[in-house]
Amino acid sequence: MPSRSLPATLVSTILICAGMASSQEISLDLDPAKTTIQFTLPGTVHTVHGSFKLKRGSIRFDPATGKIGGEAVVDATSGETGSEGRDRRMHAQILESARYPEIVFTPDRVEGAVAKQGASQVQVHGTFRIHGAEHEITLPVHVEVTEMANGGVTARIHFTIPYVKWGLKDPSTFFLHVSDKLDIDIAACTR
């Protein structure tokens, strides 16, 4: 079962940068301890819930042009659902996390503006690398700025990935059918 955690951390950083009215490039580090990555896989018998951990993230953003760079890296080996057997299968047969230990989001542009204080909605476009393949994706990001000077910025992202279409194995069995799409929810903060 794949996941897309990288975009959340990246989005937080982008949002902080976008909120600052400056034509100078801004550099931010994402905080793995303040970032949660949750996934949901609907199924016919029950829905599977799980999580991944952010490994690292660093973003560079130019508020004047909307250009963004850097990356957010998720530890694919950290994925867990609360079932040892299911997790072993997820890592060995679906994610192949020993072979592909990282899931990486590399942003290239931001559409929309981030307010210096309060809520904003932006779209972050970039490349999502999972299971050795790259996929273009645009993430809708909700940003809350409370205190820009003290790093009071959080980003919330909800999106769906077509993991089977992207080449990952369908974990469905004869008795249990699951969706071919995975819902991802990320809450991220900067350091």
Q: What do these coordinates show?
A:
- The protein is mainly β and 191 residues long.
- The protein has a single domain (6-189), classed as Lipid/polyisoprenoid-binding, YceI-like (Lipocalin, Beta Barrel), CATH 2.40.128.
- It contains two helices and nine strands; from the N terminus they run H-E-E-E-E-H-E-E-E-E-E.
- Mean pLDDT is 84; it is low at 1-6 and 12-22.
Summarize the structure.
Helices cover 13% and strands 50% of the residues.
Helical run tally: 2
What do the pLDDT scores average to? 84
- What's the Cα radius of gyration? 17 Å
Q: How many domains?
A: 1
Order of helices and strands: HEEEEHEEEEE
Strand ordering within the main sheet: 2-3-4-5-6-7-8-9
Per DSSP, what share of the residues sits in E-state strands of 2 or more residues? over 45%
Poorly predicted runs:
1-6, 12-22
What is the share of helical residues?
A: 10-25%
Q: What's the CATH topology name?
A: Lipocalin
Helix/strand/pairing category: mainly beta
